[in-house]
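Per reviewer request, we include the raw input and output of the structure prediction for the construct analysed in the revised manuscript.
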Amino acid sequence: MKDAIFIKGARANNLKNIDVEIPRGKLVVITGISGSGKSSLAFDTLYAEGHRRFAESLSSFARQFLGRMSRPAVDFITGIPPAIAVKQGVTTSNPRSTIGTTTEINDYVRVLFAKIGHIYSPVSGVEVKCDTAKGVVDYLLTLKEKNALVAARIDWNGYEKVEKLMLLKESGFNRVVDYSTGEIYRIDDVLTRKVTPDYDSLALLVDRLMLPESAADEEDFLARALDSVETAFSAGQGHIFAGAPSSFRPFSNILEADGIVFEKPTEDLFSYNSPIGACQTCGGYGKTIGIDESLVIPNQALSVYEGAIACWRGEVMKYFFDQLVDNAYKFDFPIHKPYRELTPEQKELLWTGNGYFTGINDFFDWVRKNKYKVQYNYMLNRYSGKTTCRDCGGSRLRKEALYVRILDKNIAEVMDMSIKDLVEFLSRFENELDPYDLSIADRPLKEIRQRLGYMLDVGLGYLTLNRASNTLSGGESQRINLVTSLGNNLVGSLYILDEPSIGLHSRDTQRLIGVLKKLRDLGNTVVVVEHDPEIIAAADHLIDIGPYAGIRGGEIVYQGPPFAALGADAPEADRSITWQYLSGARKQYLPETKHISKSFIEVTGACENNLKNIDVKFPLKSLVVVTGVSGSGKSSLVGDILYPALYRQINQMGDRPGAFRSLEGDVNKISAVEYVDQNPIGKSSRS
């Protein structure tokens, strides 16, 4: 095979001096039983050599930052392109890293809001607009008079009248104009008191223009008028007058409304990794150390009347509780409704208070003032923790960034949408955006839609762009990296993936295969270590390593087209245990009777993330499987609620579990609990 990667004498780990030929530009699947040597061939040999050769092509200055890369245990490898490994496990622990930043969708969304976002006043809700130089010139072209004037507003603050006029004359200006009458005066005449104009209505004359009488004159007029208007905006600090001498009209390029001056949107304004856009309270993290809602209201299944607010229990603090309960009817507050069922507005009222009762925030402000007393200092520490930033509401951005909207959505609301909902939102642009904005948004929209489409294809439509990267499972993290690779549009590279179907529901496998084939069709070689029968069947070329694990493996037992192309009898694949199971020669027999346990643990009222107040029983001394489509809430139930709740119950410490009502059943029969996820156990060379 001419266009192929040829590996001669691979001996990494348990590989037995094997020779392998991998066709380039194909989807190649490496399969075999666990421990047979698949990863040794794919990562410890193929990727290690491809990465090493790419590093050697760099300058000596660049190589010093990459560390020493040893040559893999192999005689030689020919035809290998630059290699990119997409492995399992969470690749970053940076709290600033999100799905949006990893896939680079965040960058294009920032461009979108900076270019076509419209600013709305938080006071009146009206759109805030400003004038542009082009808009002023277009207005001048509509005038019926032959002459037009462009003047800048004079700011007299802090200056004597004569002093200011002398400064303007030194800057090269010679005339002023009364914008109420259109009268023009020489600055020298005003200084020598030959004329005595009304200083309050004076403006600095920047240019006198002759409006074009024909299309031939219009080009020169436009160039001069644009330059004059820009000069006037600069001299007048954003405020100018323009028009015919008898009818001046004010213009401003400052975004101002309701007494607020707004910033012009820039890309950095929408970045929480920039000091320009990051919330100044939390520094762009979205969380601060403060009063933790989960500690103040530990059981959200309780109502206010049932004592949901933990800090208002007891004889001393009962005053604040009674104040709310006694006056709730006056502003129609539902004190008998569980806290988790309250609307966001009702929760906000509970924390901020009103004229009838003291809110939780004001209560803790009172506690802070009295923290010199031991009991109040203890209370403050008891209810403090990492909590959502009160200034940005967890959006990580300055409030000025949230004034900018597209189709009535600010950037924080867009980032909090699921990928599926975001695709639907973007589909409204063609019908609801004006043609000018749509033409500007064309390129970033194309990039965003392409990457969102890839995320839907790999079964991640339930995630949000604001989801922190370090909260993803290993399979989710790998598929996010796959989306990033597709978005980069690299060609001629070697991609090596480690079981991308892990954590993916079987209904989404064909969509994942489609994404792998797209990566191949770009001109790349895609090598996948995989056990899934559907992905094995979709391969262009199959390599089966075995026949067994450990020292009894490390051999090539089959190499060629997928098993599906071999027919019923395949003597060349007889040594392949994978083929024996796929062909039905071997079967997995399940026990006829199931173990039935009378002991159990029950989680009641689970409502973390998308869980809808469910009750679940887990039998003890049994193999219990929690399954469902991707994003259905499996990890929320087991990883966010069951494990931390058990750990805290047993050890009287640990992370806060997700929202649930109670943990019941035979908890006393459990002495320890461990959580095994897809992250590596340790990276120490001594481990």
